[in-house]
Design goal:
Radius of gyration: 30 Å
Mean pLDDT: 76
Shape: elongated
Largest sheet: 5 strands, parallel
Number of helices: 20
Helix content: 25-40%
Length: 628
C-alpha cells in the first residue's frame, strides 16, 4: 500500500517509477496489482524478448505507463530521466541483486532526476543496504558542495530517444521474416549461468514445421544422447533419448512419419530441438528419466516413481542376507541394513545378474538349509559375503563376459547420474576443432543430484604452438577465475551454481586463487554457505577412478562437439557471416547503405551531470573485432 501511494504521487507530478522485485513471478504479480489499483504498469524481466523489453522502456519514457516492475535492472542501458523513484522490494534479501554494488547501481537509475528518490522495503537494514545509503549520502554531499562552489544548479537531464531499429525498419523486418531460410548450423553458444535447458549447445531451428519444411539435421552427431524439443520461448516441450541423435531427430521430420496425436500437437508448437551427448545409450536412458521428473515436460508421459529403473539390493543387515530386485532405495533409519547396486535400465538385466549369482553360489538352497535344516548359519553368511565381494566388489580387471564384468556394464550409467561423487560437481574440459586454428572451447558441465543442471562454453584463442597441457591448464584457470564463477547467480531452482568439487581435465596452475574467487562470488549470493571446495584432476586408482573417468569422458565429448560446431561457423577464426560478407551485406541492405560498412565503431559514454565523462570504444573492421 505504501508503494502504491508513492507511485501515485509521482504519477500526479508526471514522473515515473521503477519497482524492483525479487523474482519474475513477483514482478508479474506486482504489475498486475498496480493495474488493479489504477496504476498503468507492466513488468520487465529476462523472460521477455529484446524487442519486448525495448518497447516496455519506451512506454515508460513516453508516459504510456507510469510504473515499470523489473527484477534485474543492471544490464539495461537505461536513459530514463523521467524516473524519480526507484523502489526496491525485499532489499534485505542478501544476494547478488541485493549486494552493495547492485543496490548502488539500481538506485542510480533515479540519479538523472532532481527529485530522484530511492526507497528500500525491508524488515531490517543489512550491511549492504547501510553501505549503499552511506555511500549515496556521501556522494550527494560532495556533489552539492561542488555545485555551490562553482555556481552550478542541478537539473534533470532530457534523455535521448529510445526508438529502436525494430521501429525504424519495422516494414523491412516484417518483409525479411517472410524470406527466412532454415540454417544448418547454430553458432550462438555464449551461455549465461542459467538453467541448462534455457540455452543448449546446439539447436536445429524449426520454421514452418506444419508445412513440411526441410530441416537441416546433417550436423547432428550420430551418437547417443538426450534431445529436447522446445517452443518459441525456450520452454521444454518434450525430452527423449536416442542411440543415434541424428536419425532419431530425422524420424520426427520424415514426411511419412506416423505420430500419435500427442506428438503431433507437440511438433506443431516446437520451434527448436537441442541435444546433450552422453557416453552411452544407458547414460542417455537414466539422464532422460531424471530430466523428465525434474522438468515435467507437458508432452512426456511422466513417470510417477522409479519402477522402471530398479536396483539390486543386498540385505546385509538380515540374519539370512540375500540379493533381490527393488524398485527404489530405502531411506531412513533402516537404510544401513541394505546395500544397493544400480540403477539398471531394464529388469531383464537385473534378472540376468541374479540368475548368474544363483548358478554360481546356490544361495537359495543353502539359505533354506540354514533356516530349516542342519546347515551352518555362519557358513551361509560367509558364502553370501564371498558372492558380494566377487560379484559387486571385484576389481575392474575382471575377464570380459564374467558375471562381475556384465554387472559393471549394466551399471555404467550410475557412475554419472546416480553417483554421490557427482552430487554437486563441475566437470571442466577443453575442446578443439579438427583444423589447425587457434580457437579452443572451455566447457563446464554442472552435475547436480543426477541432473546436468547447467552447461557453459567459452571460446579462447591459443597462440600457435602453445597448446601443451600447461597452456591448456592456464586457459582453464583464466576462464574459470575471470569469467565463469564471478558471473555466478543465485540458485536456479533447487540447485546451487557453485559446486563443492571441480574436476578438471588438466591440473590448474593455482587452485588456491580459484578457490578464493569462488568463495568471494559465492558469498554474495549464498552468504551462509561455508562448504569446502575441492579442485582436482581424475584419479588413476581408488573408488573414484571409474566415476571420474566417466564424468570426464562425458565433458570431453560435449566440449569437442561444441568446438566442432563453432569451427564450422568460422573462417580464419571469425564467423562465416563476417568473413564471407553475408552479415555486412545484410546490414547494408537493412540500413539502405550504398555498400557494406568496412568499419563500425561503437561508443558508450558515462558522466555525472555532464562532468567526469568516461568513454569506451569498440571497433569492427570488415566484420571482425579490431582489438585495442
Amino acid at each position: 500500500d505504501d508503494l502504491l501511494k508513492e507511485v501515485k504521487s509521482r504519477t500526479e507530478k508526471k514522473e515515473r517509477t521503477l519497482a524492483v522485485a525479487l523474482t519474475k513471478r513477483d514482478a508479474e504479480d506486482l504489475a498486475d496489482y498496480m493495474k488493479e489499483h489504477g496504476v498503468s504498469a507492466t513488468y520487465f524481466h529476462s523472460g521477455l524478448t529484446t524487442h519486448e523489453r525495448s518497447s516496455a522502456l519506451r512506454a515508460l519514457q513516453s508516459g504510456d505507463i507510469d510504473c515499470l516492475v523489473g527484477v534485474n535492472l543492471l544490464r539495461e542501458g537505461l536513459d530514463l530521466p523521467q524516473v524519480s523513484l526507484v523502489a526496491i522490494l525485499n532489499a534485505d534479501s542478501e544476494g547478488f541483486l541485493r549486494s552493495e554494488t547492485a543496490l548502488l547501481q539500481t538506485v542510480g537509475r533515479a540519479a538523472r532526476n532532481t527529485n530522484g528518490t530511492a526507497i528500500f522495503y525491508a524488515n531490517r537494514v543489512t550491511k549492504s543496504m547501510q553501505r549503499c545509503i552511506d555511500d549515496t549520502r556521501s556522494r550527494r554531499e560532495r556533489q552539492m558542495t561542488y555545485n555551490n562552489v562553482n555556481g552550478y544548479e542541478s537539473r534533470s537531464t532530457e534523455g535521448s530517444s529510445m526508438m529502436s531499429i525494430f521501429d525504424l525498419l519495422r516494414d523491412e523486418i516484417e518483409e525479411e521474416r517472410k524470406l527466412e531460410i532454415v540454417s544448418g548450423h547454430s553458432t550462438g553458444h555464449d551461455l549465461n549461468p542459467v538453467d541448462v535447458f534455457t540455452i543448449a549447445s546446439s539447436a536445429v531451428t524449426v520454421i514452418g514445421l506444419t508445412e513440411n519444411a526441410t530441416i537441416a539435421t546433417e550436423h547432428l552427431p550420430s551418437k547417443p544422447g538426450v534431445y529436447f524439443w522446445k517452443d518459441e520461448t525456450g520452454k521444454v516441450l518434450y525430452i527423449g533419448k536416442a542411440k543415434k541423435l541424428r536419425s532419431r531427430v530425422k524420424s520426427y521430420l520424415s514426411p511419412g512419419a506416423k505420430h500419435s496425436p500427442r506428438i503431433k500437437v507437440m511438433l506443431e508448437k516446437a520451434k527448436s530441438v537441442d541435444f546433450l551427448l552422453t557416453p552411452s545409450d544407458r547414460d542417455a536412458l537414466l539422464l532422460e528419466s531424471n530430466l523428465i521428473k525434474h522438468h515435467q515436460p507437458p508432452y512426456n508421459v511422466l513417470l510417477k516413481d522409479d519402477e522402471s529403473y530398479p536396483y539390486i539390493c543386498a540385505s546385509i543387515g538380515d540374519a539370512f542376507p540375500r540379493f533381490f530386485a527393488v524398485p527404489r532405495r530405502q531411506l531412513g533409519a533402516k537404510a544401513s541394513n541394505y546395500r544397493y547396486f544400480g540403477p539398471y535400465p531394464h529388469f531383464s538385466e537385473i534378472n540376468e545378474v541374479l540368475r548368474g549369482i544363483e548358478e554360481a553360489y546356490d544361495l537359495r538352497a543353502k539359505s533354506f538349509a540354514a533356516r530349516h535344516g542342519d546347515a551352518c548359519k555362519v557358513e551361509y553368511r560367509e558364502l553370501f559375503n564371498k558372492a558380494l565381494a566377487e560379484v559387486f566388489e571385484a576389481p575392474n580387471s575382471v575377464a570380459t563376459g564374467s558375471l562381475p564384468a556384465k554387472r559393471s556394464v549394466f551399471e555404467e550409467a550410475t557412475l554419472l547420474f546416480d553417483s554421490d561423487h557427482n552430487a554437486c560437481r563441475d566437470v571442466v574440459a577443453v575442446g578443439r576443432g579438427n583444423d589447425e586454428g587457434k580457437c579452443a572451447t572451455v566447457h563446464v558441465l554442472q552435475l547436480r543430484e543426477g541432473l546436468v543442471n547447467g552447461r557453459f562454453s567459452y571460446d579462447c584463442e591459443v597462440p600457435t604452438g602453445l597448446d601443451s597441457d600447461e597452456e591448456l591448464s592456464a586457459i582453464i584457470q583464466t576462464v574459470l577465475e575471470r569469467q565463469h564463477y564471478p558471473s555466478g547467480e543465485s540458485s536456479t531452482g533447487m540447485f546451487s551454481f557453485f559446486p563443492n568439487e571441480i574436476l578438471c581435465q588438466h591440473p590448474l596452475p593455482s587452485g588456491t586463487e580459484l578457490k578464493q574467487t569462488i568463495r568471494s562470488a559465492r558469498k554474495l549470493v549464498e552468504p551462509e554457505r561455508k562448504d569446502k571446495i575441492v579442485i582436482r584432476t581424475p584419479v588413476s586408482r581408488g573408488p573414484r577412478k571409474q566415476t571420474d573417468a566417466r564424468a570426464m569422458e562425458f565433458a570431453i565429448d560435449n566440449a569437442q562437439q561444441v568446438a566442432l560446431e563453432r569451427q564450422q561457423g568460422r573462417v580464419n577464426g571469425a564467423a562465416k557471416t563476417s568473413v564471407d560478407g553475408t552479415a555486412g551485406k545484410e546490414l547494408a541492405a537493412l540500413l539502405r547503405l550504398d555498400a557494406p560498412p568496412q568499419r563500425i565503431e561503437c561508443y558508450d559514454i558515462s558522466h555525472t551531470q555532464g562532468d567526469v565523462a568516461v568513454g569506451s570504444r569498440v571497433v569492427f573492421l570488415n566484420g571482425k573485432p579490431a582489438k585495442h
